[in-house]
Automatic annotation (TrEMBL):
The keyword Isomerase applies. Zn(2+) binds at Q103, H105, E140, H268. Its cofactor is Zn(2+). Keywords: Isomerase, Metal-binding, Zinc. One of its GO terms (molecular function) is zinc ion binding. Belongs to the mannose-6-phosphate isomerase type 1 family. It catalyses: D-mannose 6-phosphate = D-fructose 6-phosphate. It comes from Deminuibacter soli. GO terms for biological process: carbohydrate metabolic process; GDP-mannose biosynthetic process. This is mannose-6-phosphate isomerase. Binds 1 zinc ion per subunit. The gene is manA. The active site is at R287. GO terms for cellular component: cytosol. InterPro entries: Man6P_Isoase-1, Mannose-6-P_Isomerase, Pmannose_isomerase-type1_CS, PMI_typeI_cat, RmlC-like_jellyroll, RmlC_Cupin_sf.
């Protein structure tokens, strides 16, 4: 095992080229070329085995996943390792150009059961129809970096009734909702034969497309997002049943610095914009539409929280000088927004491995035996137990800090 020299390192993440991503935001932020015009959807920072970050050390680049495996106490701290057995979070920058799939994440208990069942069935981890890639839950929090839109949870009962009454295509669904509630309604539309989905939704989709062309819709209305899905289609074939969710879920607008937490069972989908996202170190996603990926409606329904939600959009609270925090009700991760003017500083002692990513500006970070300069597009890893000081350089700094709350 290579001896660790210092406790503060530059960290290099990995771009994920998913089809829904934009082409410019992440390359511009990183200061790299995208001459091939690949979609750049996510930038991963963490120790997920499928795309681990790399630490820049005096001995050369070190894969973070391997380093933690070799010396967990030194990198993430004994308490974190004893509790989780790994770095329990995955930190990301997202650029959402096209809508993501309707999805739900399982609880920890259900993820363990689902993983074991698929292992026993002999389904390969990389199989397209595999639901459970690991035994972990996947709560997540996002903080907007731009105006950011998402679907989050079912509308409250009165608001959903209003939709079922005001949208003619849904009038026949109102008695079902009154009798069988959210689960009965959602299970019905998600299990409808495709020809009935088409009969119900095709006239609605065509009408919404015409309204958007006429400038009669805005992003706060379901029809705007339905139109975005279909307005460039020369012919409209089978309608994606994810369209129901656009009408039945809350459409949430967040502005830069505002955050939304999404726990197990809450159905959601990102619609448009850029954000910083922090989640448990998992890749378990149960999908219900708006995607070419594997959709498993029975499994989705099994884990969905069938109740109305009023979205909690967090502005953040001042935790310490120079940082706002966004409280999340999970032990796996915490997130803070560091915003400093030139000459201002932030002091902290890392209780776990921390990742600090710079969205704008430049900073100096000084630890017990090491000092680094970092700028926009760069990230820094601070090992467990290290005390450090961040100083903003000319123009100030905007950064986000991922950590494990003290156990």
């Amino acid at each position: 095992m290579t001896a660790i020299q210092g406790k503060i390192f530059k960290l290099k993440g990995k771009i994920q080229h998913y089809a829904w991503g934009g082409y410019n935001y992440i390359p511009h932020w990183l200061g790299v070329s995208n001459s091939e015009q690949k979609p750049c959807a996510e930038y991963w920072m963490g120790a997920h085995p499928s795309a681990s970050s790399v630490l820049e050390t005096a001995a050369g680049d070190t894969v973070l996943f391997n380093a933690i495996k070799e010396a967990p106490g030194a990198y993430i701290g004994d308490k974190v390792y004893n509790r989780f057995g790994e770095l329990p979070y995955l930190f990301k920058i997202l650029d959402v150009k096209d809508m993501l799939s309707i999805q739900v994440h399982p609880s920890k208990t259900e993820a363990e059961k689902g993983f074991d069942a698929e292992e026993a069935a002999g389904i390969p981890i990389g199989a397209a129809h595999r639901n459970y890639k690991d035994k972990n839950h996947k709560p997540e929090v996002m903080v907007a970096l731009s105006e950011f839109w998402l679907l989050h949870g079912f509308l409250q009962p009165d608001l959903l009734r209003k939709v079922l009454v005001s949208v003619p295509a849904f009038n026949t669904l109102l008695p079902l909702f009154e009798k069988e509630g959210y689960k009965g309604l959602y299970q019905h539309v998600m299990e409808l034969p495709q020809n009935q989905v088409n009969t119900m939704l095709t006239p609605l989709v065509l009408a919404e497309v015409q309204k958007k062309k006429a400038g009669e819709l805005n992003r706060s209305e379901p029809g705007w997002w339905v139109s975005k899905l279909y307005e460039n289609e020369e012919t409209i074939g089978d309608i994606d049943r994810g369209v129901f969710s656009i009408y039945f879920f809350n459409i949430v607008k967040t502005m830069p610095g505002q955050a939304v937490f999404q726990g197990a069972g809450v159905p959601h989908a990102y619609l448009e914009g850029q954000n910083v996202e922090l989640m448990a170190n998992s890749d378990n996603v149960l999908r219900g539409g708006l995607t070419p990926k594997h959709v498993d409606v029975p499994e989705l329904l099994k884990h969905t929280l069938f109740e109305g939600i009023t979205p909690d959009v967090m502005d953040g609270v001042v935790a310490t000088e120079g940082e706002k925090s966004y409280p999340c009700p999970v032990p796996d991760f915490g997130i803070g927004k560091i915003e400093l003017k030139a000459g201002e500083g932030f002091r902290h002692t890392a209780s776990s491995l921390e990742i600090i990513v710079l969205l704008d500006g430049a900073m100096q970070i000084q630890g017990s035996g090491r000092e680094l300069q970092a700028k926009k597009g760069e990230a820094v890893a601070v090992l467990a137990g290290e005390s450090y000081i961040i100083s903003a350089e000319a123009g100030g700094v905007l950064a986000y800090r991922a950590f494990v709350p003290e156990l």
